[in-house]
Write a structure and sequence with these properties.
The structure is a homodimer. By secondary structure, the first copy, chain A, is an alpha+beta fold. In chain A, 39% of the residues lie in helices and 16% in strands.
Chain lengths: 353, 353
């Protein structure tokens, strides 16, 4: 385990806004991007948190991401849908605008759907689905991603892990927030096992021949195991067809990884807002979500552990960390210190207790 | 293996229309219901085929399903969504009407969404998603179902297998048709293993304590394994929240199985049509789906087998069986013979070659 130091959420936020503006982003835009990073940190989705700041700034500086993107909604051909051309700008900005538009449409038409073309990595997906549930709507978000999963029956990773998130508002309880990729685990976990020279469970990775392997290095050369085999790889393909192909941005297999600086990543997303009030009395619905949560949490649990709803642990942590601060690995802080030096800004100060 | 006899698709269709009308359904309605059964038969989705005719007629006769259902669209509160009250009628009729409405809405607004309340088992889900792809739209359909899957961390089957289907049109190629439930296998497969006194794989079923079991009888008392563990059970819950709860029909756990004659099944569905033309030139899209299919089918395959797309084997079979007939197990035919006797109609004649 790495050593951790605890940082105030607002301090981390201001730091990353500062760095992003130094790297060339406008202030308002930096605030949105940073907000998604801090959202991820407080919810302990470390892979999409502040650790990404170095690669984001590198992409901005190299012009791989367009810092001056003129994002615009294309002339809409139908009232309940929109297409946002992100002009190869930051995915977070595209995601924020796109979900705002989907929510606005849903307020009038009952459902709103925004497809985003020419975008980039948008960070933590549930940030956007929760924008909808915060407005008493059901939010669904999906994105394509760089190749990781082999289509069923093949051994070539062509499809992305293609995350899907759905957020459903409750009344007194916390929203139900599902945020999942189509692989059994993230590649990062396999990479970590490789670094630690540990075996991986048999349902994490496949070797180059498409066979299960417990050797993380073989899995890194091969592909990730999709959930439910043919089902997970099928869902991943559907998400490619609903994002990259539907927006004309990219074909399956063409999305570049965030670390690939050879050109635009050609990422696409889909944002859907469903206006609950168009179907049922909002209070009735949210009360029934509460009842559902209470029912599930009081079911007999496996091994006497507390039963947690999708997103509940993250929501609890979020509230705690906003008050008490965010633990960050010392290696990550060292990287952030280097950014601070480079841009001539103040280094982060941890909380001393 | 059961003995099989081959029946002409039209003969089977006319037979089941006949039986359904004798049981009390109107002719036009019987045609729609029968069409879904023959669709399932030709695609070899036997569990949703003609084998269901006895239970459907029993439900109709007992008044558990309302044969005179006055299905109506409730006053719409927003233009791109609709709510259909199925009045406890046959799910197939509700599904057909609901997807037609979603398609009509999507033609104007780009996306159309119909929620169905107070419905029943609607048979094979891809019948409805393919209604959309046949009209050059992307169709998504989900339904809740009787309890089978335990919420993550619990051992009580509260959630249904809650099928999800997506159908995407291609140009020269066949549509991509994903049709999946949230369990690794259907309960029917476990029941079959129990009958045959065979062990089941460790990832099919859980015993009453929520632990994996290879004993099919223990699994039948327990619950089904969701795909990807927390992910599949999360998706199942989301589908409950988007169907039964959103329409105010039922809470998770309240949907009755098709064989339960104690009252209305309280099933709900969601139908979504996405109009491709609202996003991109239709020909461009469908050509790119073709290219995607060709790309995947020519990837190096595992074990030198042909690579099949989601729905491709079913589509091939459908074409073949429409021409050459449908093999049906002799036990199923015996049950259909009993129906014919009961209603005084002609028994089925198989094809002699």
């Amino acid at each position: 385990m790495s050593q951790l130091k605890v940082y105030d959420a607002n301090t981390l936020d201001d730091f990353s806004v500062n760095i992003l503006t130094k790297a060339g982003m406008g202030y308002e835009e930096a605030r949105i991007i940073s907000d998604t990073l801090i959202f991820a940190e407080t919810r302990n989705i470390k892979s999409h948190g502040i650790v990404r700041l170095p690669v984001y700034t590198k992409r901005i500086e190299n012009g791989i991401v367009n810092r001056n993107a003129k994002m615009k909604f294309l002339n809409s051909k139908a009232a309940a849908v929109a297409v946002l051309d992100a002009d190869n700008g930051m995915g977070q900005l595209a995601g924020y605008k796109a979900m705002q538009m989907a929510i606005s449409i849903a307020r009038v038409y009952g459902v709103g759907l925004t497809a985003v073309k020419n975008s980039n990595h948008f960070g933590v997906a549930s940030y956007y689905s929760m924008m909808a549930s915060n407005e008493d709507m059901i939010g669904l978000v999906m994105t394509n991603a760089s190749p990781a999963i082999a289509p069923f029956g093949t051994k070539t990773p062509l499809l992305g892990t293609n995350p899907l998130t759905v957020s459903v508002p409750a009344n007194e309880r916390k929203p139900v927030v599902l945020d999942m990729s189509m692989s059994t685990v993230a590649r990062g976990k396999i990479r970590l096992a490789a670094q630690q020279k540990k075996e991986i469970p048999v349902d994490w990775g496949l070797d180059v021949d498409g066979n299960p392997t417990t050797d993380p290095n073989e899995a890194l050369l091969g592909s990730l195991v999709p959930i439910g085999g043919v089902k997970g790889s099928g869902l991943s393909l559907i998400i490619d067809l609903l994002t990259g192909v539907l927006t004309g941005t990219s074909m399956p297999g063409e999305v570049k990884n965030i670390t690939d600086m050879s050109g635009p990543s050609k990422t696409s997303h889909m944002f859907i807002a469903i206006n609950i009030e168009s179907f049922i009395c909002l209070d009735e619905y949210k009360s029934k979500v509460d009842l559902t949560i209470d029912k599930i949490k009081t079911l007999p649990s496996k091994g006497e552990n507390e039963v947690f709803m999708a997103g509940e642990i993250e929501q609890n942590l979020m509230e705690k960390r906003k008050l008490e601060g965010i633990p960050v690995e010392i290696e990550v802080i060292q990287e952030l210190d280097r950014l601070a030096e480079k841009y001539g800004t103040k280094k982060l100060q941890h909380i001393t207790k």
